[in-house]
């Protein structure tokens, strides 16, 4: 009986993996709004997302052990940034985190492009791909700020600056551009332009491909 329940749970988890991942990303982005500013929820929010995203690689043996080592290393660096105030550790943490998200983004984008049937799971995957793009942009901007301080104007001091840059990344790829945070150095401006172009490309090409498959699917039925 217990074994059957475990099998059913695994089947449900694999069938709804992109919906689970999307919910995890939404918790990562907006979870601190729920718990309030008095509680440092960042470690919990990050690790729930990392654990949830491992479902995407379930069954892929060639990626299992490299990703496991990467996650252990990432966890060690994350806690080290709180225990030891050394900027290079923070830089290494963001670099490893980007590598992890590159693995994740490749797998998500690969599934989006190779799929033939467009359902709620695939729509969730497209949204996950967009959120991943915004997060990668935020981490890249954070690395720039660590390596070249004051590359962005109007940032909050400390870890709040990272949240500001993730926010800046999303409003850049969405092409809103409120102007409350602005790039101040040449490299910050060039990378802002780069992610703006990538965001535009994603909106036009990737979503266009999915819509084309959806229309084709409707006609075939």
In short:
With 221 residues, the protein is mostly helical.
Structure description:
- It holds the Pfam family Ion_trans_2.
- Residues 144-211 form the Potassium channel domain.
- It comes from Draconibacterium aestuarii.
- InterPro entries: K_chnl_dom.
- The structure is a single chain.
- This protein has 221 residues and is an all-alpha fold.
- The protein has a single domain (2-220), classed as Orthogonal Bundle (Helix Hairpins), CATH 1.10.287.70.
- Helix content is 78%, strand content 2%.
- It has eight helices and two strands.
- Strands 1-2 form a two-stranded antiparallel ribbon.
- The longest helix is centred in the C-terminal third of the chain and has 35 residues, at 186-220.
- The N and C termini lie far apart (39 Å).
- The mean pLDDT is 78.
Task: Please render the helix and strand layout as text.
Blueprint (H helix, E strand, L loop, with lengths): L1 H14 L1 H19 L6 H12 L7 H23 L3 H28 L5 H28 L4 E2 L6 H14 L8 E2 L2 H35 L1
Antiparallel strand pairs: 1-2
- The share of residues in extended strands comes to under 5%
> In CATH terms, what is the fold-level topology?
Helix Hairpins
- Strand tally, please? 2
Largest sheet: 2 strands, antiparallel
CATH class: Mainly Alpha
The rounded Rg comes to 19 Å
Characterize the quaternary organization of these chains.
single chain
| Strands side by side in the biggest sheet | 1-2
Rounded mean pLDDT score: 78
Following the backbone from N to C, one meets helices and strands in this order, namely HHHHHHEHEH
Taken together, the total number of domains comes to 1
CATH architecture annotation name: Orthogonal Bundle
Uncertain stretches of 5 or more adjacent residues: none
Total count of helical runs of at least 4 residues: 8
């Amino acid at each position: 009986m217990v074994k059957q329940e475990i099998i059913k749970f695994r089947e449900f988890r694999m069938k709804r993996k992109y919906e689970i991942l999307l919910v995890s990303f939404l918790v990562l982005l907006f979870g601190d709004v729920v718990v309030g500013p008095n509680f440092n929820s960042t470690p919990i929010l990050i690790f729930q997302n990392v654990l949830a995203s491992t479902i995407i690689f379930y069954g892929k043996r060639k990626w299992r052990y490299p990703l496991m080592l990467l996650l252990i290393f990432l966890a060690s660096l994350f806690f080290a940034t709180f225990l030891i105030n050394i900027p290079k550790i923070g830089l290494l943490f963001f670099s490893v985190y980007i590598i992890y998200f590159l693995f994740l983004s490749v797998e998500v984008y690969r599934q989006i492009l190779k799929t033939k049937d467009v359902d709620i799971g695939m729509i969730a995957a497209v949204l996950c791909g967009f959120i991943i793009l915004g997060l990668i942009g935020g981490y890249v901007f954070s690395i720039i700020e660590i390596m070249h301080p004051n590359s962005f104007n109007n940032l909050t001091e400390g870890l709040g600056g990272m949240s500001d840059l993730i926010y800046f990344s999303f409003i850049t790829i969405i092409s809103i551009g409120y102007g409350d945070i602005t790039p101040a150095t040449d490299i910050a401006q060039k990378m802002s332009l780069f992610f703006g172009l990538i965001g535009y490309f994603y909106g036009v090409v990737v979503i266009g491909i999915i819509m084309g498959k959806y229309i084709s699917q409707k006609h075939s039925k």
